[in-house]
From TrEMBL:
Protein name: Putative Acyl-CoA dehydrogenase family member 11
Pfam families, per database record: Acyl-CoA_dh_1, Acyl-CoA_dh_M, Acyl-CoA_dh_N
Organism: Venustampulla echinocandica
Domain Acyl-CoA dehydrogenase/oxidase C-terminal as annotated: residue spans: 258-409
Subunit structure: Homodimer.
């Protein structure tokens, strides 16, 4: 793989990262992908669905640690806990992780723990880090991030309602959350929870806080687990959770009351790139499956193999173009984060967040189509992969919110470009008049 690093990245990847990239590729191809069906088979049925996790993950974790593949997402220069890779280097690794259902967790780089570890590493105090970051970094517990609520349009986080009221040395929490990813896993021990602690603050961005809520705190009820196109994503799952007089020590507040917006914004930058890179891996995997299918000598509709039907090779070519273009967009964003931090790379992160899932979905959809009925069944990884990546157009904010922000920023140039174009038009009119006087142009000035 290291010899296939895109040109944009090649001089920015260290020798150590190149070596690690080769180890990641081998680990994913030889250990994780073969383990994926075992993982699915080990998920419990009925009442046991949410009370244990597949043991094959633990075996993969032992192997990954031996290979030195652990927590690679914590970028060097940004976190003192980093194992030493840049966002760009980890991006290249995450692409391989995205080819397998088990790989990200096996190397302790799975969402939402990655974003949650970043929050704790960046904003947590020493006691919070000891209690929660350490076991998360060791991969012995898991976590969930609770922002979205069923009763409000949560893509606008000023709407978040969960009430946080101070009572002595505690905060008391009441409200509802849903799409709490990871809450189904019995190893999920901590909910990083956003709520409203100061609802009358005139600044709508200072009303929210983020607090650490141990998952076993009295008053918490997981009402149900949500499905994604019918998949329940067990053992991880997406919870619909109620908080009723949930009492949490004030020392569990992250950063301080009113700092919630700052924290959620800091959490989402690199995480979006991780999702995007994994999506590219999933798209590459789908293209591989499509190539296998169209070269299958037993499948000859209308007397020819699929690869001999013109439209199919066009699908292959379009898929290659879309994957390669998407990869460049993500790597560009990763480079920008490395150089300027997430705040300096907001445009590039948004470009990747919007473009990559759509490109990956196009590729996976073509692969599904090439398989006929098998494509939507459990006999290929394609249907599950499509369902998972489709959610990335919603999770971490729907496309429209990012597009609106990007459009607004791009449109800031509106007045300046209008002035430039009008100036050019005036200069052109003047020039035209000169040539007309000299009779070197006949007739009226043509429209551009
Ligand atoms: C699989 C999955 C996992 C998730 N995991 C988590 C998690 O772990 N933690 C968590 O807190 N949340 C999670 N979410 C929730 C996700 O972040 C929200 O669903 C998303 O932010 C949208 O919020 P909403 O569902 O309240 O939709 P709403 O805010 O009600 O928006 C509905 C739709 O309105 C449209 N819209 C919104 N704003 C605009 C605009 N400005 N212009 C035009 N149209 C607009 C969009 O099309 C949007 O999809 C997850 C969601 C999914 C599907």
């Amino acid at each position: 793989m290291s010899d296939r690093i895109p040109v944009i990245a090649v001089n920015r990847v260290s020798e150590n990262a190149k070596k690690t990239l080769d180890i990641v590729r081998k680990f994913v191809e030889e250990k994780c992908i073969p383990a994926d069906p075992i993982f699915s088979a080990q998920i419990g049925e009925g009442a046991q669905r949410w009370d244990h996790h597949p043991s094959v993950i633990d075996d993969l974790k032992v192997e990954a640690r031996k290979l030195g593949l652990w927590n690679m997402f914590l970028a060097k220069g940004h976190y003192k806990e980093s194992p030493g890779f840049s966002n760009l280097e980890y991006g290249l690794m995450a692409e391989w992780l995205g080819r397998s259902r088990t790989a990200s967790e096996a190397v302790n780089c799975a969402a939402p723990d990655t974003g949650n570890m970043e929050v704790l590493a960046k904003y947590g105090n020493e006691a919070q880090k000891q209690q929660w970051l350490k076991p998360l970094m060791d991969g012995v517990i898991r976590s969930a991030f609770l922002m979205t609520e069923p009763d409000v349009a949560s893509s606008d986080a000023t709407n978040i309602q969960l009430s946080m009221k101070r009572d002595g040395n505690d905060w008391v929490l009441n409200g509802n959350k849903w799409w709490s990813s990871g809450a189904g896993d019995p190893r999920c021990k901590i909910y990083i929870t956003m709520g409203k602690s100061d609802p009358t603050n005139p600044d709508p961005y200072k009303q929210q806080s983020v607090i650490l809520v141990p998952a076993d705190t009295p008053g918490i009820t997981i009402n149900r687990m949500l499905t994604v196109y019918g998949y329940d994503d067990a053992p991880h799952g997406h919870g619909h959770i109620t908080f009723k007089n949930v009492r949490v020590p004030a020392s569990n507040m992250v950063l301080g009351p009113g700092r919630g917006f700052e924290i959620i914004q800091g959490r989402l930058g690199p995480g979006r790139i991780h999702h995007a890179m994994r999506s590219i891996g999933a798209a590459e995997q789908a293209l591989d499956w499509m190539l296998m299918r169209i070269n299958d000598p037993k499948k000859t509709p209308f007397g020819k193999q699929l690869k001999e039907h013109g439209v199919i090779l066009e699908w292959v070519a379009k898929s290659r173009i879309e994957i390669d273009a998407a990869r460049l967009i993500v790597l560009n964003a990763a480079i920008k984060i490395d150089e300027l931090g997430a705040k300096g790379a907001l445009k590039e992160i948004a470009e990747a967040k919007v473009l990559v899932p759509q490109a990956a979905l196009n590729v996976i959809d073509r692969a599904i189509q090439s398989f006929g009925g098998a494509g939507v069944s459990q006999d290929t990884p394609l249907a599950y992969s499509w369902a998972g990546i489709r959610t990335l157009r919603l999770a971490d904010g729907p496309d429209e919110v990012h597009l609106q922000q990007m459009g607004r920023n791009e449109n800031k140039r509106g007045a300046a470009v209008t002035a430039t174009i009008n100036k050019q038009k005036a200069a052109s009119d003047q020039l035209f008049a000169q040539y007309r006087v000299a009779r070197e142009v006949p007739g009226p000035k043509p429209r551009l």
